[in-house]
Amino acid sequence: MQKAVEDLNAVMEATQAGFVFGHSAGGLIALETALLFPVKKLAVYETPISIAHSLPSDWLGNFEKAIEKKQFKKAMAISLKGLRVMEGIEKMPFWVVLLLINVISILERKKEKGTKMLELLPTLIPDMKMAMLLDSKQERYSAISIPALLMQGSKSPAYFHEGTKALNVCISQSTLKTMEGFDHYSPEEKVDELAKELISFFK
Hints:
Blueprint: H1 2-15, E1 19-23, H2 25-36, E2 41-45, H3 60-68, H4 72-83, H5 94-107, H6 117-120, H7 124-133, E3 148-153, H8 158-170, E4 174-179, H9 186-189, H10 191-202
Parallel strand pairs: 1-2, 2-3, 3-4
Helix pairs in contact: 1-2, 3-4, 4-5
């Protein structure tokens, strides 16, 4: 976490940026950065704020084993079903989820190396452990006194909503925004709609 925060601050200093946006675990890094360094405005989308172990983690052991064996498609299926980030995916048979992942893998072939979902999967392990380490410590963010936009998707799991609402209570200048029709991955798919919200907030 400390290295990620220092890296983000280095980018801010190099670009003279004062506005920060973080999605998912990136939101945790953004929040921690705002505690230590001069951020003017902060926006996050579905930061994994875990309240009394509300963030599902019982799948993580099997996920790590699959990663160790380089069974990346199996690992992705385990994480998708475990985190329930796609509506209804927890009810799908495992083989159906694997089939969907095969389709995604084909569609991503033209992406640059290091940007494909399967290649990024190992980073989910430290992201999850970071969120688990901060479980029920949302009160620490009450020290953030800058304007903050806290976003969540209407189609996302309840644990994201619970965490975002708790964060909204802690940060004095925060605004909670529910993005209709969005799920956890929508910021990567509905870029224009998200950008509209961010431009309005950061101006």
